[in-house]
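Hey, can you fold this one?
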Amino acid sequence: MLGKIMTGKVTDENKDTFFVQISGITFALKKLEITQEEAIQIGSEVRGFVYENQKHQKMMTQFLPFAQIDQYGWGTVTEVRRGLGVFIDVGLSDKDMVLSLDDLPLDTNLWPQRDDRLLVALSVDDKERIWCKLADENIFTQLAANFPNNLKNKNLNARVYCFNEAGAFVLTDEYYLGFIHESQMAAPLRLGEEVSARVVGISQYGRINLSTKPRAFEEIDDDAQMILMSLKRKADHQLPFTDKSDATAIKDYFGISKSAFKRALGHLLKAKLIVTDKVAGTISLIEDSENE
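Sure. Predicted structure:
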């Protein structure tokens, strides 16, 4: 019966607690965890979630957990134990539920860390131990919202919920399904991690493809940023300067030395944000870079 919402009869009470009997088993219902409006007395029937707390005491609460059997909710990781799994806060005041290591990635580097969040339900084994179980792909598909077609280059927050050999599956705050390929990760991701990612396309499987790598212009230094902005302000996105330009002209226009200008141009060329025409003596903004 543990892990379920059950009805029992109040058989006793003290200052802080009612004692509720169900099928010959007595559960403690703290008076601070009662939500019903009707007054409770000895002999009353009450309904609540029953479980065993950290001290192995049988408890009932009317503060229902976020996750239940066949009901998924977001739980927060409170502790990681390599030999057991991760402990998850599902809304009970004196008990965190365990997600077994059997349900976690084999690579412990992919395991969630404290304060990461996972979508879980509860399950009860044949020894009446309550465990967490992860939501599978079918659950996320049911939860998913349709995404608009104008998301390219938009930044979204997303939560990692699964991995395969190619990358990480995520759910955005808007409940869009997404995928981050390993090549698009600025750093390795872990289960339950929240990330900020940029939409880079739409996959053939109806997901948005995301990247946690910075945009090219976000990786360049201040001088390169300034040159880039100067190009963007021009109607034709072109300026009459190259690395062969006169140092005084560069200083007068950009306020930086020729060596700093050449270094900044190198960064912009490497990032494929500009092209240079040494015959015409110009640099030009690459059209696609305006939208990166």
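The radius of gyration is 29 Å. Let me know if you want another pass with a different chain boundary.
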